[in-house]
Amino acid sequence: MTADPRPPDPVVLGMHGISKRFFGVTVLDDVRLECRAGEIHAVMGENGAGKSTLMKILVGVHQPDAGRIELNGAPVRFHHPRQALAAGVSIVHQELNLLPQRTVAENIFLGREPRRRFGVDRAAMDQAATRLLAALGAEDVISPRSLVGRLPVARQQLVEIAKALSFDPRVLVLDEPTAALSPHEVAALFDRIRRLRADGLTVLYISHRLREVFDLTDRITVLKDGRRVDTVETSEVDTRRLVHLMVGRELDHYYPPRAAPERIGPVRLAVRSAGAGLLHDVDLDLRAGEIVGLAGLAGSGRTELARLLFGATRMTAGRLTIDGRASRLRSPRHAIRRGIGLLTEDRKSEGLVLQRSVRDNTLLAARSLGRGAARRVALADLLGRVRLRGGADREVRYLSGGNQQKVVLARWLATGARVLIFDEPTRGIDVGAKASIHELMRELADAGAAILMISSELPEVIGMADRIVVLRQGTVAGELPAGATEAEIMLLATGEPDRAGAAAGASREGGTA
Amino acid sequence: MIADTMPGRLRPLGLGRDSGTASSAPVWLVFGGVFAVAWLLVELNGGQFMTVDNLQNMAVRSVALGLVAVGQTIVLIGGSLDLSVAYLVSVTAVGASFVMQGDPDRMVLGVVVTLAIGALIGLVNGLVITGLRVNAFIATLGTSLVMSGVLNALFTNFTGSVPRQFQALGYNALGPVPVAVILLLAVVALAWYVLRHTRFGYHLYAVGGNAEVARLSGVRTDRTVVLAHVLCSLTAVLTGLFLVSRLRSGAPWVGPDGGYDLESIAAAVVGGTALAGGRGAVAGTLAGVLILAVIDQVFNEFEVNAFLKTLIRGVIIVGAVALYALRRRDEGSF
Fold this sequence. Notes:
Oligomer: heterodimer
Helix content of chain B: over 70%
CATH topology of chain B: ABC transporter involved in vitamin B12 uptake, BtuC
Order of helices and strands of chain B: HHHHHHEEHHHHHHHH
Number of helices of chain B: 14
CATH class of chain B: Mainly Alpha
């Protein structure tokens, strides 16, 4: 931190009254954000709090429905990211935006290649790229002539940052830059960001990891459900206060009552010593009538386990039994035939055929099993069971996140699935719709389904699960009964003596992996 | 910023350039292999392979496909494709001989007119694809059908002729090297330079690799694609001019009979250009064209049945491309 005794630096960036709706869902509501010159300003919040949307509005990817943006006191309006770049606002997006087939220098200067008499001045370009990489202290590990696709992710991240810096920005937005980095790489990145601050750059740091935010930032703006909760000086808050700001619910979210012990039936799906990829020695039982919550840090193997139980990845070790009979799941088709259903984490790319109708999406799996004709009659019944109103001919892309999830759920009801795996069932879903998804899950369990629910939101795991299984580094770290605390879960997930910071920080770990 | 003071220091690890543009070496290896096998087969059969006549023959045969394949490579790298080149070849051949009418004084006029038509067709292709957002496959198929309709309505057979002087392009040689081969090499060299050293080339690879990334980086993606189509059409015109100089007169069927639309795509893909765009090089395409020419030569030597010939070509094309795909997967880089 600069040892500068002067009063707070002037405000470089101001966003006032920003609101945004997507397809009728309010994503941002009257949000304010002010950043001073030469500060690292964190924007925090749970998944779906609106952090990324706010940043995309700032850099001109989205247009706000209401509100204004000021840069150095002057109002600005960006209709295209290019305009934001020209005005001195650069962003490094969560997902990498690089061309793997082109070199580092070619990526950094894409669209602005230096020219000489005949064509592009490659030497000048490589030199300029080296200078930019040097500003990040990375000139020794990244050659401007390397193919980006051959670099490890951490270095690709640095190339992205170098590219953002090449626009000579006044404000640099880093959206979850550490999602794919190891602790060592994170430390190195932080050194680099601090160096940039020393040069007078304002850095907006988007993250949901408490530890990083305390390490790095000067001030914190907390978002929750699309609203700004507060802006605080990092040095004046502790983890408990910050967690409270992030999760503190005005109204405690309602969760349906848990299963009575006598309603929990026999084991439907079981694995013993299962392994594949990073998973090893996984033992897990799923019983009829029971919801098992699966918790763990990003990268602990949660989604991998879901895919394994659904036959999407082959088990390379261990045994799997369905209703007591040993089985080898060769493919998702095979798993579906055995009565297993998976609600994927990413509905839009893995769960739904967006341009097709509610009907087609609902019957997709049943039809593929050749039972479409028999099921057609029951469509209204299926949609009624998941309480999806409206016509069955609508294209699913026009539905809200909650209703899309209901369509996927109806699909598995159509195949008669008795084991349901929910991977982040309420991600990106409205608060109101969340409750109805939760109620449906409980109803299905009461009707005899065995449910595995993966969630990175610990309150959801605690609120829903009859039993909590915690994964760590590809295997089961332990099991907890219903009503365990966040701290207990985090202790198992991190494998280290609990620190409030680690607990809350990791609990927000969005499964970006 | 300490490092600012040392821009010219030693290159970090990962020496040299290894961009996607310079990946043609394996294709030339394949060509070498095919050439050696062809040589062996012909000699074992009691024939002669390495004769000046033979080599000249293969080279000239490569010119017609080679020119247009260079253009096709350019649009493919940009993530597009051009099915209209075959009929543009016909339009050029007929147009040139119709305009020239055997008169040496009208030679320049004929060349200028056909190049202008080519540029116009390329412009239309590019604008329909970028402006109206019509899929390149459909857009260029459409212009192809339009050209075929016009051409067949106006001309039914060989029309006009090119003057003897113009035929120098098809038949003369500088020493042992045919003029047409020099033309092909010049076009390849020019395209190589454009792709490798101009902003347009850089932007083309970017647009083909990921149009959204290019757009967000400030590249005018539409303009890049349009220019690529104009260049492609111009190469098709060159192929048409070369053909008419060999035939003396143009007929509506010379383009489609040569199969230049699909063959040019096949040559580019055999040469390592990605159909999905973003990767490829004209050097590889040249090798691809030569591979196809050598195979043809062998088939002729052995007087292989025409249908069998087509079948074997198909197998070779699929095999080559599958081989590249496997190789890339093993590298595991992308």
